[in-house]
Amino acid sequence: MRRMSEWDLRKLRILRTLRERGTVTATAAALHMTPSAVSQQLTNLAAQLGVDLLEAHGRRVRLTDAARLVLAHTEPVFEQLERADAALAAYAHGDAGEVRVGAFPTAVPALVVPAVRALRDTHPRVTVRVRETEAAEAYRLLAAGDVDLALSLAAEAPGAADPRFTHVPLLADPLDVALPPDHPLASAPGLTLTDLAAEPWIYGGSGPWSDITRRACEAAGFRPHQGHSASGWTAILAMVEAGMGVALVPRLAADPRAGVVLRELGADGPVRHVVAAVRSGGAAAPATAGVLDALRRVADRTPGE
Protein backbone atom coordinates (compact mmCIF):
# COMPACT_ATOMS: atom_id res chain seq x y z
CA MET A 1 0.00 0.00 0.00
CA ARG A 2 1.23 3.50 -0.81
CA ARG A 3 2.18 5.93 1.92
CA MET A 4 -0.03 8.97 2.63
CA SER A 5 2.53 11.26 0.98
CA GLU A 6 1.92 9.50 -2.33
CA TRP A 7 -1.88 9.69 -2.28
CA ASP A 8 -3.46 11.67 -5.10
CA LEU A 9 -5.73 14.41 -3.74
CA ARG A 10 -7.43 14.97 -7.09
CA LYS A 11 -8.50 11.34 -7.25
CA LEU A 12 -9.57 11.46 -3.60
CA ARG A 13 -11.82 14.41 -4.43
CA ILE A 14 -13.43 12.31 -7.16
CA LEU A 15 -14.04 9.50 -4.67
CA ARG A 16 -15.46 12.00 -2.19
CA THR A 17 -17.82 13.41 -4.82
CA LEU A 18 -18.99 9.90 -5.74
CA ARG A 19 -19.93 9.37 -2.10
CA GLU A 20 -21.95 12.59 -2.20
CA ARG A 21 -23.60 12.18 -5.61
CA GLY A 22 -24.18 8.44 -5.55
CA THR A 23 -23.48 7.55 -9.19
CA VAL A 24 -20.56 7.81 -11.60
CA THR A 25 -22.73 9.79 -14.04
CA ALA A 26 -23.72 12.36 -11.42
CA THR A 27 -20.12 12.59 -10.22
CA ALA A 28 -18.91 13.22 -13.75
CA ALA A 29 -21.48 15.98 -14.25
CA ALA A 30 -20.54 17.66 -10.96
CA LEU A 31 -16.82 17.63 -11.81
CA HIS A 32 -17.22 18.43 -15.51
CA MET A 33 -15.67 15.11 -16.50
CA THR A 34 -16.81 12.16 -18.56
CA PRO A 35 -18.08 9.04 -16.76
CA SER A 36 -15.27 7.00 -18.31
CA ALA A 37 -12.69 9.47 -16.98
CA VAL A 38 -14.19 9.22 -13.48
CA SER A 39 -14.09 5.43 -13.62
CA GLN A 40 -10.50 5.44 -14.87
CA GLN A 41 -9.32 7.83 -12.16
CA LEU A 42 -10.94 5.73 -9.43
CA THR A 43 -9.45 2.55 -10.87
CA ASN A 44 -6.04 4.20 -10.78
CA LEU A 45 -6.59 5.35 -7.20
CA ALA A 46 -7.54 1.84 -6.10
CA ALA A 47 -4.36 0.53 -7.69
CA GLN A 48 -2.29 3.23 -5.96
CA LEU A 49 -3.79 2.46 -2.55
CA GLY A 50 -3.81 -1.30 -3.02
CA VAL A 51 -7.45 -1.76 -1.93
CA ASP A 52 -10.82 -2.11 -3.66
CA LEU A 53 -12.72 1.15 -3.49
CA LEU A 54 -15.92 0.25 -5.36
CA GLU A 55 -18.18 -2.76 -5.51
CA ALA A 56 -21.10 -3.63 -7.77
CA HIS A 57 -24.54 -2.91 -6.36
CA GLY A 58 -27.19 -3.88 -8.90
CA ARG A 59 -26.58 -1.71 -11.97
CA ARG A 60 -24.61 0.82 -9.93
CA VAL A 61 -21.52 0.87 -7.77
CA ARG A 62 -21.10 1.74 -4.10
CA LEU A 63 -18.15 2.55 -1.89
CA THR A 64 -16.46 -0.28 -0.04
CA ASP A 65 -15.65 -0.13 3.65
CA ALA A 66 -12.05 0.56 2.64
CA ALA A 67 -13.16 3.57 0.59
CA ARG A 68 -15.13 4.96 3.52
CA LEU A 69 -12.13 4.44 5.78
CA VAL A 70 -9.91 6.32 3.34
CA LEU A 71 -12.34 9.25 3.18
CA ALA A 72 -12.76 9.37 6.95
CA HIS A 73 -9.01 9.85 7.31
CA THR A 74 -8.68 12.36 4.47
CA GLU A 75 -11.48 14.72 5.59
CA PRO A 76 -9.08 16.53 7.98
CA VAL A 77 -6.70 16.93 5.02
CA PHE A 78 -9.39 18.66 2.95
CA GLU A 79 -10.23 20.90 5.92
CA GLN A 80 -6.58 21.85 6.37
CA LEU A 81 -6.29 22.66 2.67
CA GLU A 82 -9.28 25.02 3.02
CA ARG A 83 -7.48 26.70 5.92
CA ALA A 84 -4.30 26.95 3.87
CA ASP A 85 -6.21 28.57 1.00
CA ALA A 86 -7.77 31.02 3.46
CA ALA A 87 -4.39 31.89 5.00
CA LEU A 88 -2.82 32.44 1.59
CA ALA A 89 -5.74 34.62 0.51
CA ALA A 90 -5.40 36.70 3.66
CA TYR A 91 -1.65 37.02 3.12
CA ALA A 92 -2.01 38.06 -0.52
CA HIS A 93 -5.18 40.15 -0.42
CA GLY A 94 -6.02 41.01 3.19
CA ASP A 95 -9.80 41.20 3.56
CA ALA A 96 -10.35 41.54 -0.20
CA GLY A 97 -11.79 38.71 -2.21
CA GLU A 98 -14.79 37.21 -3.96
CA VAL A 99 -17.33 35.13 -2.04
CA ARG A 100 -19.83 33.04 -3.99
CA VAL A 101 -23.07 32.64 -2.05
CA GLY A 102 -25.74 30.05 -2.81
CA ALA A 103 -29.07 30.86 -1.16
CA PHE A 104 -32.65 29.62 -1.31
CA PRO A 105 -35.14 32.07 -2.90
CA THR A 106 -36.65 33.78 0.16
CA ALA A 107 -33.23 34.24 1.76
CA VAL A 108 -31.93 36.32 -1.14
CA PRO A 109 -34.04 39.49 -0.61
CA ALA A 110 -34.45 39.02 3.15
CA LEU A 111 -30.87 38.20 4.18
CA VAL A 112 -28.34 38.25 1.36
CA VAL A 113 -29.21 41.59 -0.26
CA PRO A 114 -29.16 43.55 3.05
CA ALA A 115 -25.85 41.87 3.92
CA VAL A 116 -24.34 42.89 0.58
CA ARG A 117 -25.46 46.47 1.14
CA ALA A 118 -23.86 46.52 4.59
CA LEU A 119 -20.62 45.06 3.23
CA ARG A 120 -20.19 48.03 0.90
CA ASP A 121 -19.43 50.10 4.00
CA THR A 122 -17.68 47.57 6.24
CA HIS A 123 -15.80 45.48 3.64
CA PRO A 124 -15.66 47.49 0.41
CA ARG A 125 -13.05 45.17 -1.11
CA VAL A 126 -15.26 42.10 -0.80
CA THR A 127 -17.25 41.08 -3.87
CA VAL A 128 -20.29 38.85 -3.36
CA ARG A 129 -21.68 36.79 -6.21
CA VAL A 130 -25.14 35.38 -5.51
CA ARG A 131 -26.59 32.18 -6.92
CA GLU A 132 -30.24 31.45 -6.14
CA THR A 133 -30.79 27.75 -5.55
CA GLU A 134 -33.05 25.38 -3.69
CA ALA A 135 -32.16 24.70 -0.06
CA ALA A 136 -31.01 21.11 -0.57
CA GLU A 137 -29.03 21.92 -3.72
CA ALA A 138 -27.02 24.56 -1.87
CA TYR A 139 -25.04 21.85 -0.07
CA ARG A 140 -24.25 20.00 -3.25
CA LEU A 141 -22.90 23.24 -4.74
CA LEU A 142 -20.87 23.87 -1.59
CA ALA A 143 -19.39 20.38 -1.55
CA ALA A 144 -18.49 20.64 -5.24
CA GLY A 145 -16.72 23.98 -4.72
CA ASP A 146 -19.22 25.90 -6.87
CA VAL A 147 -20.11 28.24 -4.00
CA ASP A 148 -18.15 29.31 -0.92
CA LEU A 149 -21.08 29.86 1.43
CA ALA A 150 -24.53 28.30 1.42
CA LEU A 151 -27.76 29.50 3.02
CA SER A 152 -30.18 26.69 3.62
CA LEU A 153 -32.74 25.26 6.02
CA ALA A 154 -31.59 23.21 8.96
CA ALA A 155 -34.00 20.46 7.87
CA GLU A 156 -32.09 20.17 4.58
CA ALA A 157 -28.63 20.27 6.14
CA PRO A 158 -26.39 17.21 6.49
CA GLY A 159 -25.98 15.96 10.04
CA ALA A 160 -23.95 18.03 12.47
CA ALA A 161 -21.34 15.26 12.51
CA ASP A 162 -20.64 15.66 8.77
CA PRO A 163 -16.97 16.75 8.73
CA ARG A 164 -17.22 18.51 5.37
CA PHE A 165 -19.12 21.56 6.62
CA THR A 166 -19.21 24.14 9.39
CA HIS A 167 -22.73 25.35 10.19
CA VAL A 168 -23.70 28.76 11.55
CA PRO A 169 -27.29 29.13 12.85
CA LEU A 170 -28.81 32.40 11.65
CA LEU A 171 -32.45 32.62 12.70
CA ALA A 172 -35.72 30.85 13.44
CA ASP A 173 -38.26 31.93 10.81
CA PRO A 174 -41.85 31.57 12.09
CA LEU A 175 -44.52 30.24 9.75
CA ASP A 176 -47.67 32.32 9.57
CA VAL A 177 -50.93 31.21 7.98
CA ALA A 178 -52.31 33.13 5.00
CA LEU A 179 -56.09 33.38 4.66
CA PRO A 180 -58.41 35.14 2.18
CA PRO A 181 -59.50 38.57 3.50
CA ASP A 182 -63.14 37.47 3.79
CA HIS A 183 -62.41 34.13 5.48
CA PRO A 184 -64.61 33.56 8.56
CA LEU A 185 -61.51 32.95 10.70
CA ALA A 186 -59.46 35.85 9.33
CA SER A 187 -59.94 37.83 12.54
CA ALA A 188 -60.75 35.01 14.97
CA PRO A 189 -58.82 35.29 18.24
CA GLY A 190 -56.34 32.57 19.16
CA LEU A 191 -56.27 30.98 15.71
CA THR A 192 -54.51 27.60 15.51
CA LEU A 193 -53.69 25.24 12.68
CA THR A 194 -56.26 22.78 14.01
CA ASP A 195 -58.98 25.37 13.33
CA LEU A 196 -58.08 25.07 9.63
CA ALA A 197 -57.97 21.28 9.42
CA ALA A 198 -60.92 21.12 6.99
CA GLU A 199 -59.56 23.80 4.63
CA PRO A 200 -57.96 23.14 1.23
CA TRP A 201 -54.23 23.81 1.58
CA ILE A 202 -51.94 25.25 -1.06
CA TYR A 203 -48.32 24.08 -1.22
CA GLY A 204 -45.84 22.45 -3.57
CA GLY A 205 -46.24 18.90 -4.79
CA SER A 206 -42.81 17.92 -3.53
CA GLY A 207 -39.67 19.35 -1.97
CA PRO A 208 -38.89 20.95 1.38
CA TRP A 209 -41.90 23.25 1.53
CA SER A 210 -44.28 20.38 0.92
CA ASP A 211 -42.58 18.48 3.75
CA ILE A 212 -42.68 21.49 6.08
CA THR A 213 -46.41 22.07 5.51
CA ARG A 214 -47.30 18.41 5.98
CA ARG A 215 -45.17 18.06 9.12
CA ALA A 216 -46.62 21.21 10.69
CA CYS A 217 -50.21 20.12 10.07
CA GLU A 218 -49.58 16.55 11.22
CA ALA A 219 -47.98 17.88 14.41
CA ALA A 220 -51.25 19.80 14.95
CA GLY A 221 -53.19 16.54 14.64
CA PHE A 222 -54.41 16.40 11.05
CA ARG A 223 -53.28 15.59 7.53
CA PRO A 224 -53.72 18.58 5.19
CA HIS A 225 -55.92 18.23 2.13
CA GLN A 226 -53.93 19.68 -0.78
CA GLY A 227 -56.40 21.72 -2.76
CA HIS A 228 -53.83 23.21 -5.15
CA SER A 229 -50.12 22.81 -5.88
CA ALA A 230 -47.71 25.70 -6.41
CA SER A 231 -44.09 26.36 -5.51
CA GLY A 232 -43.78 30.14 -5.99
CA TRP A 233 -45.03 32.54 -3.33
CA THR A 234 -46.61 34.87 -5.90
CA ALA A 235 -48.82 32.03 -7.16
CA ILE A 236 -49.58 30.70 -3.69
CA LEU A 237 -50.63 34.07 -2.30
CA ALA A 238 -52.68 34.91 -5.40
CA MET A 239 -54.67 31.70 -4.94
CA VAL A 240 -55.17 32.42 -1.24
CA GLU A 241 -56.38 35.94 -2.07
CA ALA A 242 -58.88 34.44 -4.53
CA GLY A 243 -60.35 32.26 -1.80
CA MET A 244 -59.00 29.00 -3.20
CA GLY A 245 -57.44 27.82 0.04
CA VAL A 246 -55.04 28.66 2.86
CA ALA A 247 -51.28 28.32 3.11
CA LEU A 248 -48.37 28.43 5.52
CA VAL A 249 -46.01 31.29 4.70
CA PRO A 250 -42.56 31.85 6.21
CA ARG A 251 -42.28 35.31 7.68
CA LEU A 252 -39.22 36.01 5.51
CA ALA A 253 -41.44 35.56 2.44
CA ALA A 254 -44.43 37.52 3.72
CA ASP A 255 -45.57 40.39 1.50
CA PRO A 256 -47.96 42.86 3.17
CA ARG A 257 -49.15 43.91 -0.31
CA ALA A 258 -50.28 40.40 -1.23
CA GLY A 259 -53.98 41.00 -0.49
CA VAL A 260 -54.23 38.23 2.11
CA VAL A 261 -54.55 38.15 5.88
CA LEU A 262 -51.43 36.82 7.59
CA ARG A 263 -52.06 35.41 11.06
CA GLU A 264 -49.37 34.50 13.57
CA LEU A 265 -49.74 31.11 15.25
CA GLY A 266 -48.18 31.98 18.59
CA ALA A 267 -45.17 30.74 20.50
CA ASP A 268 -46.08 27.12 19.79
CA GLY A 269 -46.48 27.69 16.07
CA PRO A 270 -44.22 26.02 13.51
CA VAL A 271 -40.85 27.52 12.55
CA ARG A 272 -38.13 26.77 10.05
CA HIS A 273 -34.50 27.26 11.02
CA VAL A 274 -32.17 29.07 8.62
CA VAL A 275 -28.47 28.23 8.67
CA ALA A 276 -25.35 29.28 6.81
CA ALA A 277 -22.63 26.77 5.98
CA VAL A 278 -19.08 26.83 4.65
CA ARG A 279 -16.66 24.04 3.89
CA SER A 280 -14.75 23.09 7.03
CA GLY A 281 -11.80 25.43 7.32
CA GLY A 282 -13.30 27.96 4.90
CA ALA A 283 -14.53 30.38 7.57
CA ALA A 284 -10.91 31.40 8.19
CA ALA A 285 -10.84 33.37 4.95
CA PRO A 286 -11.27 37.08 5.84
CA ALA A 287 -13.70 37.75 2.97
CA THR A 288 -15.89 34.77 3.90
CA ALA A 289 -15.77 35.70 7.58
CA GLY A 290 -16.91 39.21 6.65
CA VAL A 291 -19.90 37.90 4.71
CA LEU A 292 -20.85 35.56 7.57
CA ASP A 293 -20.66 38.43 10.05
CA ALA A 294 -22.86 40.60 7.82
CA LEU A 295 -25.43 37.80 7.51
CA ARG A 296 -25.48 37.35 11.30
CA ARG A 297 -26.10 41.06 11.81
CA VAL A 298 -28.98 41.09 9.32
CA ALA A 299 -30.46 37.96 10.92
CA ASP A 300 -30.25 39.55 14.37
CA ARG A 301 -32.29 42.50 13.10
CA THR A 302 -34.88 40.34 11.34
CA PRO A 303 -38.18 40.02 13.24
CA GLY A 304 -38.69 36.45 14.37
CA GLU A 305 -40.31 34.59 17.15
From TrEMBL:
Entry similarity comment: Belongs to the LysR transcriptional regulatory family.
Protein name: LysR family transcriptional regulator
Protein's UniProt keywords contain Cell cycle: no
SUPFAM superfamilies assigned to the protein according to its UniProt record, in alphabetical order: Periplasmic binding protein-like II, Winged helix' DNA-binding domain
Lineage, uppermost ranks: Bacteria, Bacillati, Actinomycetota, Actinomycetes, Kitasatosporales
Domain HTH lysR-type: 7-64
Keywords: DNA-binding, Transcription, Transcription regulation
InterPro entries the UniProt entry points to: LysR_HTH_N (IPR000847), LysR_subst-bd (IPR005119), WH-like_DNA-bd_sf (IPR036388), WH_DNA-bd_sf (IPR036390)
Domain of life: Bacteria
